## 1
Amino acid sequence: MPPAVRNIAIIALVALAIVAIPGGGTAADLVVAVISLAFLATIAFFAQRMYMENRLTLWSLTTAHRALLYGGLALAFATLVATSRLMATNAGTLAWILLLAAAGGSVFYVWNESRRYRV
């Protein structure tokens, strides 16, 4: 049996078990929650690791640039947290796009300014 057919059969069996077994949907919700928490923990670990490796670079930024960088990151985080509420309406979707663009623009601006050589 080819591996692709085997993998599809495994997925079909898992889906059948979720549908057929009582409480299967609850178990599936639990698995999704555990995977989501593991993903968030990985992101937090990566962020902490990046901060520890680039402390000198971050502290060599001016106070205004550092505030703009942290503000942009906080705006992106708050926007991603509010995604489900913002995506409920068309205006919210537009606001979501604009907020993430503003956050990305501020981080890009700080990165660009940190690379600029000034005497």
## 2
Amino acid sequence: MAISDNFHVYDTTLRDGAQQEGLNLSVHDKLQIARHLDDLGVGFIEGGWPGANPKDTEFFELAKRELKLKNATFVAFGATRRANTKAADDPLIAALRNSGAPVVTMVAKAHDRHVDLALKTTLEENLNMIKDSIQHLKSEGQRVFIDAEHFFDGYRANRDYALEVVRVSAEAGADVIALCDTNGGMLPDEIADVVHDILGASSARLGIHCHNDTGCAIANSMAAVAAGATHVQGTINGYGERTGNADLVSIIANLELRKIRSYYQIICSANLSESRMQLLKLQMWRHLRVNHMSVYLPLLTKPGYMHLLLK
């Protein structure tokens, strides 16, 4: 079936979800999950970070030969080029370019403090890194999405710079800029206010990527959509580091049942009973594969609570 580009359901179970404590996916596992996700009808499947670790590099090589998606678009994840280099000469950008994925999602720093402390470069060079990386991959024929990391904390600290990251990304040709609540500390009204502000101050197409440290990842994702985001990221069953990510199972159901389906076209031409069957397969897979996985509750267990205290 043809997936509408008007609204994106973007699955990152194979990368962000795989950071769940106790969840260890083999290359074969990732291929099988990708096929189930394709049958479910998500628009985009993020496969991992080629070039960053041997398992993901092997997975992308096998995917070129063995992964035949009927519905979804395959996505490679990575980062913008290193400081003071050229995108064309960066080996991790080359891995994205050679991944075989028609779409690339790159994480970009949107918090001024992290540019200084993590990248150890200037705010201007970070913008150049974003622009150069997007333009290079676009010139190679790939579609580019940007994950604006720690966006909401960056917005609180320096709205002008966080906004400039969005503007530069859009002007360089990024199709979507996903605003990331990387710390998972936002609340729905706060998310809605920021999304509305950024949409009014830029021409960018916005997405949302929420972590669940306050237990609000699903609600935050829905609030972003209500405020105008047309791209929502998450993982099956809410898998992910610390207390997890936004749960796509609940998000898809809420979008299908509570929003105007003819407008959003979340899973085009899909019958809800068929979708439930695919979710059931994924739930069954969960019990077979992750029976030793650790699960942490938002705010009530150490990973989420301490993370919010220390952010």
## 3
Amino acid sequence: MPMNAVNAPRYLRPAAVDRIFGHTLAFLVWIGLIRAHFYVLEVRGRKTGKTISLPVDPLDLDGRRYLVCARGNSNWVRNARAAGEVVLVRALRRHRYAVRELPPGERPPVLKAYLDRFAGEVQRFFPVPTGSPIEAFGDLAPRYPVFELQPSNETAPGAEAALR
């Protein structure tokens, strides 16, 4: 499929307020005060090697777990591609996953489920409304990176210390 303005990879940079809220939410999720569907994503920076942390909404669908980036080709997306793995943290418990990026042709059902489940948080990033048919996501799929998370082991390094 040729790239055009509708499906070209892009990144919507968060505003300062969004960044402050994200850091605060990540901390509260990390220590376990906020659970719901939130996790903290940790991924190693591809240039600095430093761990980058931010709140995410993993999607469990048909026995598989996915991460979707509603903002497009973000920094964490590029870092996850380079690292090949991520860690999800909630209430000081860490779980490591290998990542497999879905090709655009496999993304529409995941994008639909993601928008339907988390519309209150992500609708503003999608040009189609909640409840749209899967076909509505076909042309949009290249704009939204989707990773399938595959457990690489039960806990990530540092989990034992965090649980003590």
